[in-house]
Design a protein that fits this description.
FAD/NAD(P)-binding domain; alpha+beta; six-stranded antiparallel beta sheet; 18 helices
């Protein structure tokens, strides 16, 4: 057996050599019962998707090497292997996803496990002050499927103006009208009403559906929005501003990761090799020709090399891709020189322009009825059997996320449909699990949790998380050393721009107003108005208090982006051109969220999948044209 990996509060995962099997032991009732139900009902056969083969013996050379089997990388691999004449290797640092990572309600349980890179930011005085060491936890998927295997499965494209702005910044081909076909290309929309309109499509690899289960609070939030004067909308359609039930990347009550969507259906393609537990340590670049010709990687402690005839594609995500570029000699000259890394391309934008969506945690309302997602009431033998046999019931809930809202504060243009705040409206909140999972996943200090939340353990409540959609604060990534196995240094710089502070402050006020509507008062909603530590010197409900409040329980939404930005050659901070080719090096592309010049106005998984689709198309067009010219 492999090593034991510790989960929160005594839960452990023991990985067996059989890659698709995971045993979970815990002192609680839930996990052994859940596992027994899954095994009894042969869950591996109940779910017809099966895993790709982990190739043990690799070829010395492939046409394309894709680094990272996450939200974009799996899309790229799928589309490139459509050409039977091209060989493609996918290198993924993690292992297989499992039956338990498929279960929507368990998302937070897999933070800080072997499925996670276990990143933390550097200490800061501007945000995450309620977290241990004043460091934010940055969960990233180290598993086939990447963060699409750990996320909350929310399918949110962003706003049309986001992409039009990309194009206006000097990136032709990336306007909303240009990228909409790529969103639709992936999609298999299961809502028959949405599937009929021009913004959605059916038949794609990625299943998108409505929630299989809702608490009464989900519809209550919609009624609250109408009471406040907002429309009920399809936020992935014509209008983003308004309230809506979420759309999810789910299939038959289980997670539809990009591994399931894009890899499992093509596992029999002979021109595809997948190598798991293979961490790429650098791109091999000829310093004279400045051409990428392969990669170096570690697998089972053994360092190996593999060559690429046509291109190396980096799809490691906005945290790992800049690390890999810098380790390979592409990045800010002074930083690389200081670490003794030979400079291939002085690219000052690598690791800069780091953006993320953040929200203000801890905004919750208690209710008078047993209708919310209280863990010890919902996770019962009946719900386990219902899920294991039919894929139905409350365990299909995405950690209690029910409803989404997009609004414009007084700092935005209310006449324009380009909201600056999004709300994640949930039938749960931090203490709903008694402090056993979310608190630990987010690294809240014991002192903060005990003082603010412990009195509400396992109580009925709902949560409102306001999220700033277009932050102006910018962080950065640096190497800790030239050792590829050392985690990089992450500086989030949250709330360092005054406009972000003001916008999120107004978002908090608007969030509380949602809870104060008559629609929510029908549930007996009462705001938990306990002053948080660090802010008692300010009067509750004042601007000064809220500006202090948002710096305490600062929630990342895990939407890191922008660290290898796309831009025209005239932009000195651009790392890739609009074709996603790395400036100054041939045969090397970046296709992931790091290329976003500006983060989209919403969750980033769907845009990252779109980037994978469009990036793959550009590769195919480029090399197909070359082969036609050569007559091959």
């Amino acid at each position: 057996m492999a090593a034991v990996h510790v989960l929160p509060e005594g839960v452990t995962i023991t990985s067996l050599k059989t890659a698709s099997t995971v045993l979970i032991s815990t002192t609680s009732f839930f996990f052994p019962t859940f596992l027994a139900a899954l095994l009894y009902f042969r869950y591996d056969l109940y779910d017809p998707e099966t895993q790709v083969f982990d190739q043990q013996t690799l070829l010395p050379e492939y046409d394309f090497i894709v680094v990272g089997g996450g939200s974009a990388g799996n899309v790229v691999v799928n589309r490139l292997t459509e050409n039977n004449n091209w060989t493609v290797l996918l290198l993924e640092a993690g292992g297989y996803e499992t039956e338990l990572t498929d279960v929507p309600i368990l998302s937070f349980f897999f933070h800080k496990t072997r499925f996670d890179w276990n990143y933390r930011t550097q200490p800061s005085q501007t945000a995450c002050l309620a977290m241990k060491d004043k460091r934010c936890v940055w969960t990233r998927g180290k598993v086939l499927g990447g963060s699409s295997t750990l996320n909350t499965m929310l399918y949110v494209r962003g706003n049309r103006r986001d992409f039009d702005q990309w194009a206006a910044d000097g990136n032709p081909g990336w306007s909303y009208e240009d990228v909409l076909p790529y969103f639709k290309k992936s999609m298999d929309q299961r809502n028959p009403y949405l599937a009929k309109n021009k913004y959605h499509a059916t038949g794609g690899y990625l299943t998108v559906q409505d929630a299989p289960w809702h608490s009464p609070l989900g519809v209550g939030f919609l009624q609250a929005g109408e009471e406040m004067g907002y429309d009920i909308v399809d936020y992935n359609g014509e209008q983003q501003t308004g309230f809506s039930l979420y759309q999810y990347t789910m299939r038959r009550g289980t997670r539809c990761s990009t591994a399931k969507a894009f890899l499992s259906p093509i596992k029999a393609r002979k021109n595809l090799h997948v190598s798991l537990n293979s961490q790429v340590t650098r791109v091999l670049i000829n310093p004279q020709s400045r051409r990428a010709y392969g990669v170096e990687y570690l697998r089972n402690g053994v360092k190996s090399r593999v060559h690429a005839k046509k291109e190396v594609v980096l799809s490691g995500g906005a945290l790992n891709t800049p690390q890999l570029l810098m380790l390979s000699g592409i990045g800010p000259r002074d930083h690389l020189t200081d670490l003794g890394i030979p400079v291939i391309q002085d690219s000052p934008g690598v690791g800069q322009n780091l953006q993320d969506h953040i929200g203000a945690g801890g905004i919750l309302f208690t209710v008078d009825y047993p209708i919310s997602f209280v863990t010890n009431r919902i996770m019962t033998s009946a719900s386990i059997i219902n899920y294991a046999t039919q894929g139905k019931g409350p365990l299909t809930s995405s950690t209690g996320l029910e409803t989404v809202a997009f609004i414009t504060t007084k700092y935005g243009n209310i006449t324009d449909d380009w909201p600056d705040i999004g709300f994640m409206l949930t039938s749960t909140s931090t203490p709903s699990d008694g402090g056993k999972v979310v608190r630990i996943a987010q690294d809240l200090t014991d002192e903060f949790y005990e003082e603010v939340f412990s009195e509400l353990n396992y109580k009925d409540m709902f949560g409102i998380l306001p999220m700033i959609l277009r932050p102006k604060s910018r962080g950065f990534v640096k190497l800790r050393s030239a050792n590829p196995l050392e985690h990089p240094l992450f500086y989030h710089n949250y709330l360092t721009h005054p406009d972000d502070v003001r916008t999120l402050r107004e978002g908090v006020k608007a969030g509380i107003a949602i809870g104060e509507t008559e629609a929510m008062k029908r549930f007996g909603a009462k705001f938990h108005a306990k002053p948080v530590p660090g802010c008692r010197q300010f009067e509750l409900f004042t601007d000064e208090y809220w500006e202090c409040f948002i710096r305490q329980y600062t929630c990342t939404i895990y939407h890191y982006s922008g660290t290898a930005k796309m831009g025209p050659s005239s932009d000195p901070m651009a790392v890739v051109d609009p074709s996603l080719l790395v400036y100054g090096v041939t045969g090397l592309r970046v296709i992931d969220a790091s290329i976003m010049p500006r983060v989209t106005s919403g969750n980033t998984n769907a845009p990252t999948i779109m980037i994978g689709e469009k990036g793959a198309d550009m590769i195919k067009a480029n090399w197909t044209d070359r082969e036609l010219e050569r007559g091959t």
